Amino acid sequence: MSEDFSMKRAGNYTLVRKLGDGGFATVYLAQHTVLEKKAAVKLLLGEWVEEEDVVTRFFDEARTMESVSEHPNIVKIIDIATKEKCQEEGLPPYFIMEYLEGKSLEDLMKSTDGFTLEQIVKIMDCALSALQFCHDHGVVHRDIKPSNFMMDADGNVKLTDFGIAKAAENTSKTGEGLTLGSTDYMSPEQALGKRDLDYRSDIYSLGVTLYQLVCDRLPFIADSANAVALKHIQEKPIPPIEINAGVPRRLNNIILKAMEKEREHRFQSCNEMREELDKLLDPNAEDVPEEPKGNKTGVRTGVKTATFDLSNIKPENGDDEFSRDDYDITTNYTGMTTRKLVKKPPVVLVGFIRVTLIIAIASIFFLSMFYLYGKYTNVHLKISSSPSGAKIYINKNLVGTSPIELDIAPAQYLISFNYEGYEQKNNAYVGESGKPLEVSVKLKKIDNEGKAKLKTELEELSKAVANLEKTANSKSKKDQANHAKFEEEALNYYNSIYQLFENHDYDFDYGLSYLKASKELNKLEEAKNNITSLISKGKNTSEMHCLLSYFYKELGDKDNYRQELETAYSVPEGSNNKDVLNAFGQYFLETGEIEFAKQYLELSLFLYPDQPDIKAKKEKL
Predict the structure, then answer these.
(1) In 3-state terms, what secondary structure has residue 416?
(2) Which of the following is catalytic: 60, 79, 143, 184?
(3) Beta partners for 386?
(4) Is the distance from CB of 548 to CB of 564 less than 8 angstroms?
(5) Average pLDDT over residues 488-516
């Protein structure tokens, strides 16, 4: 539970009461100390105060909101506290926003019977206007969902929560460690982890929100967040008109176009989508727009667009729980009802008491079973690293520093280790129901000095070998004397390269240099035997087996080349080693097995996206 700051001063405001907690921040209702003016104060949670990257992103959110807050449908920033001010007041980093009276669109979707077509158009008109303003100012929101829209009593909507918004001029920040969108509303490119997200990703998420508004259900439902993300990537949504026959054909097609898998097939601006929605209330507009690509519905045409009342949309039988709101990696992924079907209360008080008692007993039983179910189905994850203290990210969510233990739902996870001065380590794991999972990694220290020396030694070796070739067949005594001298130099450089390889714990990058040096001096067989000996003496790592496979490849031994690759993949951490995956991809390219090559290269890029040469190789396939 976060610390309670009620009645503390934040600038010219007094914090009155907590409005709600999030994963990284908490929001308070505040009252101006002099004026009759309310505000909302967003404070960073205490556990993140020492995380510099999180603090930076927290203030980035405030600056982003400030840059677009001129728009009437975007929440306004009142003030941002300085670091010195926070220390003086005894508060964590915070900023002050306007306080919005009303409910979120999510709350309204849960509590009302539905929305008329006019209400839906007005909601979307406000949302699209706000988003277009953001996009015009180079800001992509990246977390569009019903809970991030506030609606006042007049039906006006304001866009909030720019926690993971990304400005065009700030593209160097990858957003790693923060959730890049809510799974239920994320675009296919977000689900794929792409970094080049643009305004069309917001349009997709708004399309999902509109789908939920008119259908009273989400387009994709599954038992886990990963499964939902996969549906966004692969599956077409059921056309809204097939769920609710009252949906106008034009509205049906607008939603499907906004939710196209390919960005190029969606609306190319919020204004374009807004123009189509406005035609829904125009009796003189053409009846039905062009159907989106790949989403032919095969349903009736000629629907009058301006006369349909969508306020009585109800879930179909047995399909009451639709929403998948917030997925917490530390708990089971559970559904949350979008809008429960409200039953009329019994007339007789006795009946009411009986029902209440039955519900109470059933709730106790359910909670007990839920606890036991979670205990025996969750995965107990234990993570450690050498050195300890590395920041741990699970599916790009920062969860703490190593060593750490937590319970997570069974699913596939990308676990990343970040430690200053060491190379980032990314591993993919599958957590199986009820089984503990222990992850322990050794991080590789960044050694620019050693790499520079290695490069110099290789260059000098190449020069010595070139001089050896020039003097090899000369009968001149001087050339013969120089030949012996060059031979000694080449051997010294060769031994120095091996020494660097040995001193850096037989690092794969150094090993490739040793391979190159061995090839230059025709010592492949000798070096191969040396690597084999090291493996037999305990260096039985994926890197060493992968390196040995390269030696066999150079020696033309295809059987052992393949055998060592398979061994490299099967030893601990081999399946998470990008060098092994890339080597397998290259092997299958050489054997003409293109589909296998693509699979290994894709997995390598999933773990480490920043590999331009591998990306180019895969794209050629």
Answers:
(1) strand
(2) 143
(3) 442
(4) yes
(5) 88
